[in-house]
Hints:
This protein is 37% helix and 13% strand. The chain has two helices and five strands. The radius of gyration is 27 Å and the shape is elongated. It has a domain at 36-143: 2-Layer Sandwich (Glycoprotein, Type 4 Pilin). β3 (126-131) and β4 (134-136) form a beta hairpin. It has a three-stranded antiparallel beta sheet with strand order 1-2-5, with helices on one face. Strands 3-4 form a two-stranded antiparallel sheet. It is an alpha+beta fold.
Amino acid sequence: MRFTVLSKERGFTMALALAMVTVMGIFLMVALPILATDVQREKEMNLIFRGEAIANALRLYNLRMGKYPTQLEELMKIKPRVIRQLYTDPMTEEGTWEYIYAVQPGVSGSTEGLPIMGVRSRSERNSVVVYQKKSLIHDWTFTAIPNYIEPLDSGIK
């Protein structure tokens, strides 16, 4: 028995496959922004966890030692430790924090040896999560003093 394909049925499988690929592409276009938002939200929640852990460690360090550390590595040196590990900033590729100092730098602008009382992310991105009533990630501060308001830049360089 021999089957013959009618000329009207030719290309039907190809058209069906093309339609399926098109529909899948549309679904992907809808799903990708949602997925990207979920990844961003997860990174921000991780940032909040890490920043608050460092702020709590700075608070404990200050209670035990009577001063703030001049480097975050000092948090790991006291026994018992006040933090499990030195967390990196999850919002930047380098993973380095911007420090908030207990005293303002002098005229030279040098921050070497100044006591660190908090950290903030270096990321300038807008956030998905609102934290501390702020939606710019760089504005989120994690300090040993709760509700600390950083002084405005005096303009002295």
